[in-house]
Amino acid sequence: MIDTTEAWIDLLLQHGPFTVLLGVPALVAIFMIEIRISRLRKLEPPPYGRTELIFWPSQIFISLACLSLVGLVVALGTETADGVWGATFLMLYSWVRALFLNRDEHRYKARSSDTLFLYYLTTITLSVIAIYILHDQAPSLPKLPVPTVVLHLTLFTFFTTLGFVVEAWPRSHTKVQTRAREAEHLSEYDQANLCSRLTYHYIDRIVSLGAQRPLVPADIDHTTPEYLRTRQGLAGVGPRSHHASNGTYTPSFFWTVIRAYRTQVLVAVFLRFVAFRLPFLTPILFRQLLAFITEYHRAANSDGKEGVPALGGGLVIALALFAINMVGTVLGTMALQ
């Protein structure tokens, strides 16, 4: 019986594993970063300044990560085997552009970047996988200076991890965020970064306050105008309290939320539906990928008796598998907004 995991690793090793693991995500990230930068630069910079305590550590850690990649490019010289050089160049360019994105996020939005957060997370995960393959398959890479590549990739992963910690750190109580919240009437959710939303950290203050005493409308910072304008919102508290006290009306918190945020609820339901369906495609694509690897391995060992399937087909399946999982994660996150 063929070990499909071993066949997959062999396939990667024969056709530039690091181009697939690191280069292709970097290419996608370059495209996404450029789109985000172009959108940000169409906005008017707010007069709040930037949170220096977060901005400069982010820039420093991204710069150090870029220097690690520059060192790797210099160490490789003209050696382009196994796709390391091309992947390193794409990663270097993407993180140089990330420096500009981080600057523009602080200049135009005064908040953390969801694009950078996701790219940090993806890069760290794939870099760890690449380092593992280098350690485990060093004898299969005779043309590659494996210890040097491992050293620079480890430094790169270390600095990106530090940058990720800074990017994910809650920042709702900084002076810049406080000024923005007061000027734009933003809620804590509006200012929460992606990590805070995923972990529900932004609601800790309200939960802690609710554990001490019953909540009142003033406890919720900057309730949205849409909610205030509805009869089910704070503007209708008095009349509805009167009806409730007389027993003529039973208020419903559920319908209050539905009527106040009708559009947002419909969008969230649609996104949740799509995000729920996408994972069902994963086993189908994975089965296709395993079938391709098995067929490729059998054809490669048939001494030319069987035609080797085109490598592009396997790469398309692998990228589709990666893209569906990423889109499913992003949609699942957006559905919570």
TrEMBL record:
Task: Reply yes or no: does the keyword Membrane apply.
Answer: yes
Please spell out the taxonomic lineage of the organism that makes this protein: Eukaryota, Fungi, Fungi incertae sedis, Mucoromycota, Mortierellomycotina
Give the superkingdom in one word: Eukaryota
The name this protein carries in UniProt is Uncharacterized protein
Membrane-crossing ranges are 12-33, 53-77, 83-100, 116-134, 146-169, 265-290, 310-336
Keyword terms, alphabetized: Membrane, Transmembrane, Transmembrane helix
Source species: Podila minutissima
Q: Look up keyword Transmembrane helix and say if it applies.
A: yes
